[in-house]
Amino acid sequence: MEFLSKSTKNTKKLAKQLVPKIKSGSVIALYGDLGSGKTTFVKYLVEALGSKARIQSPTFVLIKTYKIMSKKIQMVNHIDLYRIENIEELKNLGIEELIKEPKSVTLIEWPKIAEKILPVNTIKIYFEYVGENTRKISCEELNVQNIY
Fold first, then answer.
1. Which of 19, 30, 57, 113 is most buried by its number of CB atoms within 10 A?
2. Is position 41 within any domain?
3. Residue 85 is part of a domain; what is its CATH number?
């Protein structure tokens, strides 16, 4: 699936489309440079899953957890590994335990350093800055309809 988002409104629609495809226990790895739309996507996905929380990048706190009002999914773990320098730091954060939580969904920004511990069924979504308001979002594992 490759999707060209020409506005945050498009990104929000994409996030809503993905909700039925996300299962409890899912791990979603978000790849892309700074400013490519990863955190904006997380905001809309967490909102579409049912949270009313104010979503902010966990760049400095590394992990934020949001409660979800659903029988299947009870929380979303939003992890930002931008500042993590090695696998030992990663293990000390307890990431391995978080990604095994059966009633949660885990979203990981800057996941490259964690690839060795991610489950084989991790959903990988790639973000690319195309222009001021345009982002290319691609994912091999999910099929969504064009929303234009």
1. 30
2. yes
3. 3.40.50.300
